[in-house]
Amino acid sequence: MAAAAPVPSPIPSARPGSTPARKKRRSIAALRSVWLKWRTHSLGLADQAVVSGVSFVTTVLVSHWTSPRELGLYAIGISMLISIVSIQDSLIALPYTIQRHLPRGTPTEHAGGSLVQSGLLSALGFIVPLATALVLSACAAAPELVAMTWALAIVTPFALLRDFGRRYSFAHLQMARALTLDIAVAAIQLIALCWLGWTGRMSPASAYLAIGVACALTGGVWLYHARGNFVVRSDRLTAAIAHGWDLGKWLFAIQITVCVQASIPYWLLAFGAGPTAAGVYAACMSIVLFANPLIIGIGNTLAPKAALALSEGGHTRLRREATQDLLLLGAGMMLFCLAILFFGDDLMSLLYSNEEYADHAPTLFVLALAMLASALGMPATNALLAIERPQVLLGASSVGAGVTVVLVWYLMIEGGLLGAAYGFMTGSVTGALGRWIAFLILVPRHGPPSDPEAEPEIRSPRQRDALMQRQARPPASLRPTAGHDASAYIAADCNDVHELDFRATEAERPSAHDL
Hints:
disordered C terminus
């Protein structure tokens, strides 16, 4: 009798809803991973969008409720305020961002020294407009100009405080805090400006006061909540200012060359081709500058990330960070250039109805390529700043500015407005190439910094703590005897980078006696 065929056991079915729930968890995990990876850049873009948008809306509101003459006075004062803020960024904020990882005092002492420097600059920013207002009053200048100068004297310290809080948040990669600060400033500023306009009190001076009130309220609240992050050591303040000045003076000089390179085409076009050509160039550049929120928003995160990469991973991680930033900026700006290529002329016609502004699509695209070149040079710029080589950056920026001046003048004669755009693009490409060549030479793939006088390369926070403890208390074999300087022994102890790395590593692991 044949045996009965075995009945296959039923396959256990999955619990109802288990597969969709698992897929949902995976989707949430994937989204969380993507958000964590792009969170810093996304918040940086949002912050810059808020700042740029508020600046644009403020100009529109002032123009709506004042005359063109008053709008011109407002624009002059705002340009002065922006210049003072840029000085703080070059001399104080950016040096703090780059140098805050160095083992020279505690983090709170670093921050306290920078805050004191910002306060000194604020005092200077108050005294200079105040003296100017007194001189204008004595000379019987126009009342609107005198009132604007008085308002600038009041507003400048609060604007510098707000900018310092913003840059401090950027240095610590606290992008959400910077975004919160700027949203609060935007809300208070726009509410105050609308109230001034609706009540008929709008003027350049009152607009500045609205900006000052917004900066004072938000900056004061930020400083109160962050007061525990600042410690002022009067005995180390002079050294901190001198150390920041060593880097800040070069950054300030670099900023001057960049401003010259950006503004020289306007002057050369106005002189050689007439004011109309300069106006059309300004209109084209205003379209291309729509990329600024992308460039500045991401750029606000690149410098602190480069300094952190050098502190934690040395040159190897710094090169990897610069490469990733290059790919990120390149992808974003390539999309922007394509948008300008296909839609730039239509946008130009939409915003500028005069026939003089029509048919400039090639000029728009060339200027967009110039912005692409400038953006691609930013990762190399931040890497060179992280290793504190601003002299090289100044050389590259000076060469780029020189090429811009020569080629804009020569090509403008040959090709008019489009030739001037080609000259500006060539200068931008030259400056970016110079930065990357210097980066490849000065930042090797492996090994210590190429400067023998540079700080030793610290690869982890534990090694940094070990180094600070060793500097505070040298070993018995290296402690100075009578008549010797202790700093000389500390410097000798830190002279050999390879030996320092080995000993810092040994300080982290247990010895054979401990085992």
